[in-house]
Protein 1
Amino acid sequence: RLQKIDNDYYPETLYRMYIINAGSGFKLVWNTVKTFLDPQTTSKIHVLGHRCQSTLLEVIDEGQLPEFLGGTCTCADQGGCLRSNKGPWKDPEILKLVQSGDAEVAISNSEGRVI
């Protein structure tokens, strides 16, 4: 029932998800779980093992990827990346646009077309 509610009211809200450092036990469980999910959704979920740096660097800038995942980000001024609140919502330029009401948003689908 929960999955039906999710599909009916929040269709395709996931763009892409990476599950990293997944062991063989998780991968075994995932193969079973994904049979209960919509194939379009499961195609967006990428389960990666311990050697995931090259895949992550294809989609995340090295300066934004934490050191422990192969990037150069340390967030030293915030107690490390796991404790930081780093994100575009903290960018002064973005905040200025949002607060002034001048921000424009375009939403695109997974093919990159604006919807």
Protein 2
Amino acid sequence: MSNQQSHRIREIPYNYTSFSDREIVIRFLGEAMWQLITELRGSRRTGRSARMLFEVLGDMWVVVRNPYLQDDLQADQGRRSALIGALKHRLDQFEGRANGNLKALQLLRAARASVEAFAACFETNNQLRQKVRRALAPITRDDNVDFGGLARVSHSTDATDWRVEMPFVVISPDSEEEVAPIVKACIDCGLSLIPRGGGTGYTGSAVPLDTRCAVINTEKLEQLGAVEYVRLPGVAQQVPTVRAGAGVVTRRVSDLAAAHGLVFAVDPTSQDASTIGGNIAMNAGGKKAVLWGTTLDNLASWRMVTADGCWLEVERLNHNLGKIHDQVEVSFRITRYRADGVERSGAPELLTMPGTSFRKAGLGKDVTDKFLSGLPGVQKEGCDGLITSARFVLHRMPEHVRTVCMEFFGTDLARSVPAIVEIKAHIEQCAGVQLAGLEHLDERYVKAVKYATKAPRSERPKMVLIADLVADDQDLVARTASRVVQLANARGAEGFIAVSPEARR
């Protein structure tokens, strides 16, 4: 049997996960032991010894992957002792059938060491839990610190559904002020940290990769201020802004802005569940990014806790109130504070770079550029600190809006796709009309969301374009919307224009 074929074999019982036998063996016994198992596979006679070994690994694996079993065994020492005794008994039987085979005995030693480590982890975990509770007791309420199975399972993945490890603990601070001391306490306890908001990300940034980690859930940081007209550093006129905590759901900010006749430009498709902190950490966009840019373009300032448990505040200077790459030179003032959030740590730092450095020519937002000229927090996916709050610039939407929905049918996407460029180019040539949003839905997305076809057809479209056109001249925006539909018709699409707010939703 080839080595590649042996990787696909699943002999370990109770393994209903995506992990292969190879990955489980390497996790418990090490890669050298997997090579040994592969060598011994050809010399099996009845396979009974191998089944005993795999049963031991399977029993440990089902506990490792099930926090509810862990909680049960943690609380019931008798049941835990019975399990460990059964594992050791199987290994004794394995030894009795080894017949002096040196390779089998080498495998046995590794298995015994793994069982001992498995048995010891319960007491080790219990001691670490007590240590974490003691460290956090003066900082946050006891019920904000959750070691339970439900919390750990709920925080083991995000929208990717990618699962590697489960967090050791989930912490949900009540206020922004609690975050820095929580971070410091977790570091002192030897835990790595994962900030988490709504868990709607598709990059795996909220997925634990180590069992010794704490997920800090920011959903309780939901303070949302009133719309305030403030004079930003370097900006002559007063600007409408809003300050929001990291746990505020995106839709709430949009609704607040709309109630004041303004627009919050950050509107990812997950806005009913995503949170402000996640939007900043991912530099989220949305339909309105066409007009006002992504999250970064609309930030006036933000606060975050660094990996050493201290505070950092970032303010944008000379804000152009538009797309950041249109500004020749962009400046940020970075002020560091000690753990109390009041006393400054050194002089403020000035970070200056060309506006074009935030975009990739011909592409727009470059998701591979995590450094972003050294700007903290934004597009870092929570890797350089934990964002706690931010102040955003709000915008005035032109008086008249038309939403154009274009449905493309047929299999010739080479004919359909150029419509995106043609429509955008046409609108750019129309003085007085702006493209406030342009959203593209591909065939997989259309199918996934069970898109309701607007055209009188029984099939779903292969591609959907949704464009928001805005202008202060009602006749002009209406004519432009009609022309956009004509351009789509020329590419084999059917178009629909929505005028009222209800129809545009």
Protein 3
Amino acid sequence: MRGKLVQSILLVLSVTPQLWPQQRQAAAVPDDAIVDKDVVYETLGDRQLKLDLYRPYQSTEPLPLVIWVHGGAWQAGSKNGPNPALSLLQRGYAVASVEYRLSGEAIFPAAIEDCKAAVCFLRLHADRYGLDPHRFGAWGASAGGHLVSLLGTTIDVAEFDTHPISQKTTATIHAVCNWFGPSDFLRMNGFASVIDHDAANSPESRFIGGAIQENKQKSRRANPITYITAGDPPMLHVHGDADRLVPFNQSELLHDALQKRRVPSTLHKVVGGDHGFGKGEETRQQLIDRSMDFFDRVLKPRTQHPKHDNSAIRKAPQNAKNVLLLISDDLRASALGCYGDKFCRSPNIDELAARGLVFDRAYCQGTACGPSRRSFMFSRYRGKAPTNLAQHFRENGWFSARVGKVYHMRVPGDIIAGSNGDDEDSSWTERYNSAGQEAHTPGEYACLNLDDFRTDLQNRQSTAMPHRPYVSVQYDGSGEDQPDFKTATKTIELLNAHANEPFFIAAGFVRPHYPMVAPRQYFEGYDWQDLQLPPQVKDDLLDIPKLGRSRSRSELNGLSQFPNNQKRMWAAYYASISFMDQQVGRVLKELDRLGLRDSTAIVFTSDHGYHLGDHTFWQKADLHEEVVRVPLILSLPGESANRTNSIVELVDLFPTLAEWVGLDVPSNVHGTSLLPLVKDPNATVKDGAISFANGESWRTAHWSYMRYNDGSEELYDMQNDPYQLSNLADSPQHADQKQRLREELESRLKNVTAL
């Protein structure tokens, strides 16, 4: 076995004789560069994972960062090897070179888990090292090219966020440069190559732990091409068309797939170039320069706002109106009293609904916390724009403040740490975090999928997956030290302090997001024995494609063994909602006391919905109705209460609020103003809503169509099948309808991509 491993490594190295002599001459590190060697970014037992960080100088402004991931067939190489990215030091970039576990130590997904953990470490410590977390790039060659491509396409794929540090923030990358990396292991053979990629001892087979064609599911999991979504970062692929190790078609496949999803992608063919560009018509330095130019184009122009330029802020008009944005977390619309739930006690949100416009068909675009919040704050289906919602108000003279979770924060990691998460500092005049103990809150703790009940504080599932989503705590205290109570208290302080000036205040509550912590009094009255689980149909999953099935299913997470604990999950979810609702009520009562209702737009919504046993699914991040449908209430001064069945999207909030206060609406937003519905709830502002998770969904008044990245589909008649129990995608009688919906989805995506 050891002999075969050595033979495989030597074979990989032997096909690139032109590359290795050049690479041994690494780019020169400037004499004044700041070098931090062997920085530990994660510890796994006795194993320390390290990176080297290079900074060009002691800058007074945060630096863009490019992360170099080495190649070597996932079997060899190290962070200390040749690194063309070091040339970026001369252009004012910081560069990190990361190590990851090679396939001889740990098979897939270890390497990508390590790389994502390194990104998370650098984001969490961006302030310490003077880095700009909004301008992170990744660059890699061969196996490293594969890994950086995977970094780019799995930003929102939680299954690879397994390391403890990956629970604290998101491994967000904003640009990817892929040098001759594989993208689809299943389609590497059939081209001129010096090795059999399907063989059991090929680098790819060793990487995944089995022969490629005999382990197709795992191969697909390892393919960057599997995870592409419309919001992935721009990518550059540089590949020789005479590559004898990784066929040129690998970059072609990835480039074409990215373009199909309308991700900015550039493919540069090195004519005559072998693996490593040997014998190619361009020099290695020319290709390095081309790659650096790509990073300049993508990273240097965007979101360069480490300091607010207050000289550019305009003065708000006299008598300008205010905005109060209230955001819940993981709240499904159907769980609220004002949306028809007969068990939930949500009197304050219900009272707001009774005074505002209730949207019965509001849909999120991202189906996990980070993508959704980024989407509605920038009014973009995926990715970012130059200006976000709160920034637009701040730059036009409004006091802009965040309290709690508005952009993505890892819950519970960022809440326990009291950190900013993935905040956009350009948004706010002031910002405040609301820390809490989360699962370590004293009280009656339960980890329901393990049937673990305890009152002591030891051995609690707090930040580790996969058990933390099923944790509840019946808290012994009054709730004043809970994050949502703190968020309401600080919001009330800000309302008092800024009552006489125009404000945009966003208050982000973390409940009912797990761990479902609430004072004991809020659990009282929710007798789990009285609660009803969602309807279950035998063999329900048979017509749901693999990419449409939640990874958090009852038979996988253990809850199928404990039916009563499924009801306890519902009870804890309701209790968390009721506690959050009480904090919303505190804020609204203070708004009334200050006489600000007559000048303030109030929005209440959630980032996305949540599964609680529907189809045996739990949690979020899929395209079914329980996840994509969200509560949305808009209360405007002087407007009567009403409800509307019109389809709307969370990206519509930006243009709606900007138009209502009299600001210009940026031309590149993807949303549509909802103000016509305030005057006429029966009006139509759009034909359908798009959501993203392993593909896209298109929700119209009558139909729900889902198209996944592997081409599989779901189709539901929502008027006759509201629980989505009968997939009609393969029904011949519905083929024409499916085609129409597919064309409508493509048309919408094409139109917004042009903005």
Protein 4
Amino acid sequence: MSLLKSRRTGYYLLLVAVTTVFFTLLYNHGMGAWEDRPQPLYRSLEIVFQTYTTTGYGEDAPWQTPQMNLLMIGMQLAGIGLILTAADVFAVPWLRNALSPSAPTTTDAVDHVVICEYTPRGEEFVAELNSRGQEYVIVESDVERATALHEADNRVVHGDPESIKTLENAGVDRARAVVADAADDVNASIVLSAKEVNPDVRTVTLAEDVALEEYHRIAGADSVLSPRQLLGESLARQVPTVVTTVVDDGIELGNDLELVELSIETGSELCNRTVDEARLRERFGVDIVGVWVDGDFKSPIVPEIELNEDIRLLVAGEPKRITALREEATSSIQSLSVQRVLVAGYGEAGSTAADVLAETNTEVTVIDSEEKAGVDIVGDAREPAVFREAGIDDASAVIVTLNDDTTAIFTTLIASDLNPDVDVIVRANEPESKGKLYRAGAAYVQSLATVSGRMLASTIYEDESVLAVGRQIDVVELPVGRLAGRTLVDADVRSETGATVLVVVRDGETIADFDPDTFTFEPDDEVVLAGTDESVRRFETEFLSGV
């Protein structure tokens, strides 16, 4: 906003006008009544401005009466005050704008990824790109946000992402791909503009509404991703039912090898035993990749960790061995009664979760602030009375899929307080909110931004295959990069990165049983990694950046 249009400028000019009129009338009256030297009004106005500008008073000085001298002192102080105020209103903002860095409007990047609009999802994707040493350019329409990103050492182009000129300035004609992460209608417009600048550039869009995916493709999008739908399915899978049990569907890693997340049920043979006492590797022949404790993933695990209902294991092994382990992790007493699950928020993720659960032996009650098809209780999820009406007292789980993390945190607190035994499963819009949601009582939290970042990375990079997008953990297939010619022990991958190499893919064949001390990686090998977002990025930075 320009200085002349700012509110502070308006107030300042009004102050100057009011004080000028006041002092002009008072001075004109004083010269006639106190000094016995009447004069025209315009002459008094001139004296006021001479005072304000400190240029002198000419023939009117000196004044004989105390009243006029006091008036002149007041005018002089007012003039100094107006000058100092003018410096704050005009000079300081001008200097700040002149000296502060501004976001550029062009870039010379080549073979880069153009990200149109910067969101929490884009922030996660940028972290993925940085870990691979991939050039990128963010096109941001908001000048303040663009400047802040520029000051944070991000490569930014300020401009309208729908504008052909802006996309030309962002180097779309030289880009590797264009990612559109705005509203659905804006994304379609971005794709059309990008294809006009460079018909061969790869375009990827994120769809808020699955029903509108088709129109993104009609506009020319090469890939359309729906992270909200995938996240809804992932959240629904966290609710144990007679159909889904306590173990997620395994992630196939190759010949007779799966990776699964396994919960420990109260009353099972494994419950309340330490990892050392359970001897899972010796008894079942499975590898424990890591364990979730209060939402934090720990790898490798400490043998003294006690296995209980708050623990969730990540294990790899043959399907039959996983089945044997699952039987021991499951309570012998199984309830066959219909379970009640509450879904708070009926957007894309919430409706998908409700649809998935409806196919099991689960009674689903949907809460939303708007009355629409599929909603059972209309009300604010932050009100305890709404949850009581929905039947939280006998619910086994609550799935929270709200658009605002602050609201989701408060809703989690309420649900956990009303029913301490209920499992609260939450969608976080930003990764930074996960810790607060766990502290508020959530049993499971999945970040929309994290899921989106994984999906985008898997789509953009042809050499990266994400095997588990909607999970708490990353399972990705990557080239070995600088691991070639080395062994796992030599590279110390797990200690250096925190990621675990599960299998090696060589010439299309999966190698699961290899000696980490002697097995040497070849340049064309690929590895399947399991780890957190941070650990996988550390692996990419350590072994793939710049390759």
